[in-house]
Design goal:
nuclease, two-stranded antiparallel ribbon, 6-stranded mixed sheet
């Protein structure tokens, strides 16, 4: 097994990079970090499977989505042993990469994120989205994981910055919980309510003297609140303030759509519903998110993981010119599904905040159309 892996590494065609979705340097770095945790002792009956092979099996499973039988033929390891290796290695990767996702804890860190959104949507400090991760019916679960799409799922709630990196992820809510309830029950919402995030104090938008809070950008699946902006429902006349606001919000929050698209197409383990228990699905999902951030920040793996053309390209007028390649690679039966958009009546202060943003973007569009 180890010889086969070394032959793959020595291939000049770059097959190893396709095999693991990363550079050899990053593979060796991760191996060095997880080896003390995943290494097993040889016995008198048999030699232990090397840590290098254990890591390669796990990364190949995440990258390809191959079932245990297929991995058995590739690595000559029994499916039963593979079913134990993958959770063990995923747990080790979660431990060594846990700092890759770190929600800002100071006003200065939030302002750094806001700088990335400022041109498209000032005062935005992240784009938020949620997805159902579908799985086959868990044993003895009743209707706990049964969702509105008549499938079984857990829910992933994530916050993304303008560089297509995850800065918060909450995984494991039962699919039966309403999509609005997922956010209300999340750690992120608790921190917002207790002012534990140290979000900067409200500030007026350019050209205004009315303070507006820093906000997360969501879609129709989320409730409109003081800290979450969502589009106006329905269709609106071309050039109307509501349509202009919706367009501005959509242009700014497309980063989260691209981030999820990259995650799902690069880690093909999401290509179809999971045949695993919810706890293992949560573990695998978090491992993929941590690896996503790690590879996005790596100089050697970035061009392998997200080569040019992967992400949507927009011109100076924020018009989509080249759709990202991930859009053509999405599977119709992917394990990752959208949350349900449910109309909700927002509080009056949340509506006033959205109206202030609407006035800003409408005035900006009027200025840009001046001769």
């Amino acid at each position: 097994m180890e010889n086969q892996l070394m032959e793959l590494v020595a291939e000049p065609s770059g097959e190893f990079k396709k095999f693991t979705r990363m550079s050899l340097e990053d593979f060796e770095y991760l191996l060095n970090k997880v080896s003390p945790v995943i290494m097993k002792q040889d016995t008198q009956l048999r030699e232990a499977i090397p840590a290098r092979v254990r890591l390669a099996v796990t990364l190949r499973f995440l990258a390809s989505g191959d079932n245990y039988e297929s991995l058995h033929f590739l690595f000559k390891i029994s499916p039963q042993i593979i079913s134990k290796i993958i959770p063990e290695v995923c747990l080790a990767l979660n431990q060594v990469l846990k700092e890759e996702i770190k929600i800002p804890s100071t006003a200065e860190e939030w302002l750094d994120i806001e700088n990335g959104f400022a041109r498209k949507y000032p005062r935005a400090i992240g784009s938020i989205d949620g997805k159902h991760i579908t799985l086959e019916c868990p044993s003895n679960s009743g209707s706990e994981y049964y969702n509105y799409k008549k499938t079984f799922s857990i829910v992933l709630l994530a916050l993304v910055d303008s560089s297509y990196n995850f800065i918060f992820a909450d995984i494991g809510s039962q699919g039966r919980i309403s999509d609005g309830g997922v956010f209300r029950n999340s750690l992120l919402w608790q921190k917002i309510c207790t002012n534990a995030l140290n979000i900067p104090e409200p500030n007026p938008l350019p050209g205004s003297n009315v303070d507006v809070p820093y906000v997360f950008l969501g879609d129709g699946a989320f409730a409109l609140t003081d800290h979450v902006m969502k589009p106006y429902p329905g269709n609106h006349e071309y050039g109307s303030p509501k349509r202009i606001f919706n367009q501005a919000l959509s242009r700014a929050r497309v980063v989260v759509e691209n981030t999820f698209g990259i995650l799902v197409t690069k880690f093909r383990v999401f290509k179809k519903p999971f045949q695993l228990c919810p706890e293992k699905v949560s573990l695998i999902t978090m491992t993929c998110i941590l690896l996503h951030n790690y590879l996005r920040k790596s100089n050697t793996s970035l061009p392998i993981y997200t080569p040019p053309g992967t992400i949507d390209i927009y011109d100076n007028n924020d018009i989509l010119t080249h759709p990202g390649t991930w859009r053509q690679e999405l599977e119709s039966n992917s394990a990752v599904r959208d949350l349900l958009h449910v109309p909700r009546r927002p509080a009056s202060n949340a509506r006033e905040i959205r109206e202030e943003f609407t006035n800003y973007f409408f005035a900006l569009s009027q200025q840009q159309n001046l001769p």
